[in-house]
Amino acid sequence: MPQRFWESINKQVSKWSKLFLARKYLRFYPPSFVLRNPILEGVQASFRNGQQIAVIVFNISNLQNLIEQFGISHCKQYQLFVRQALQDSVVKVFPNQNILSLHNYSSNGIALIVQFPESKKGFIDLEISINDIMSKLDILHHHSNIDMPVQLNTGYMFIEEIEASAEDAIDRAYRQADAMAEKRIHSKYNELVFEMTRIIKNKDVELLAQPIIDVSSNQIKAWEILSRGPKGTSLESPLQLFSVARQTNRLFNLEMIVLEQAFEQIIKTGCPHLVFINLTPISLGNPEILKSMKKLLTKYRQVDPYKIILEITERDSIQGYKHFVENIQSLRSMGFRIAVDDTGAGYASLHTISEVLPDIIKIDRSVIQNIDTCTVKESMLKGLLLIAKETGSIVVAEGIEKEGEASVLSRNNVDLAQGYFYAKPDALPSMVSSF
């Protein structure tokens, strides 16, 4: 064999042998390829910024009739036309930077994923925006090649950040939005409305409690009330329960039921500590809340409002709620104290702190997790403690799961803490009696 041939073989062997070297030598062999998911990245970025993200589904309900009359090939072209018309309408309603994606969702569905502006009021304004999009689609009824007008069913769901993954949250929102879009054909949505109405009417909500510990003395200082839907149902999960309540316009009613049940448990157990109860900005901005709270205090006179901490969740920005600030002032005059939840997880909580000047600031689990091994997170904690000092707020650190995290809180003189390291949530009567 010619020497040039063997030299060529040696070069090839040398090249490919790198693929079988120890891992530490494989820095560039083989090259790494990362498949990006722009939708997932956009949703995760929105979560980090404390933004709401909604999935809106547009289903062509008469697609089968269109196929039978005009054929599959013609209808595929028509679907492209529908998508383009939707895109033109969407950009007239939403700022371009807020649109994360407009894509085919199923054989007859098109999905829009949009970052909902903080100035809007959640689902009410989202429905207004959807109606605005639909009103700009008159062109679909005058398509020159198809005499039969397209029929679009719409549904939506906000993507809720959950512990499992952002992918799970997106998938769940897709499925729930699709169920809403098909409500004229299927009964799933109506069943959810009926079940939520039944839960509120029968006050079918289970309350759990988790202790909040004084870091310096390791003694119980307060309890946070956590709620669950009916056991064994799809609404047992608090994420599902409150998401469906919100979409069916029953969130305020549900949160008032949770408040009433909590008051009953406080009296029943003779709980001597402070009690934290979550309320969304939607409910706190509702003009009916003051009347409801006065009614509860009249009915449960043994409950001292000064021992009740109304905890503002961060899922909604307070911007745009006309009665929010004045309601907070009135609730304070009634004796209630105010806490801001999830501080450090996004912009919304910091904005709420500056507007409300809360009595208590709760630091989100994302700041606390592995803080004992991350100096940057400890610096973040110190910064939040400075904010709390400026506003005169007590600090509660959430989600403590190990001793190292608790020790960081202690050396930084954090006031209060809660998490599985201290105790898991349980029924309030058994928790109070066991501590």
Automatic annotation (TrEMBL):
Residue ranges crossing the lipid bilayer per the database entry: none
Lineage of source species: Bacteria, Bacillati, Bacillota, Bacilli, Bacillales
Name recorded for this polypeptide: EAL domain-containing protein
Domain EAL as annotated: residue spans: 189-435
Gene3D superfamilies: EAL domain
Source organism per UniProt: Bacillus salitolerans
PROSITE patterns: EAL (PS50883)
InterPro entries: Cyclic-di-GMP_PDE-like, EAL_dom, EAL_sf
Family annotation (PANTHER family): CYCLIC DI-GMP PHOSPHODIESTERASE PDEF, SIGNALING PROTEIN
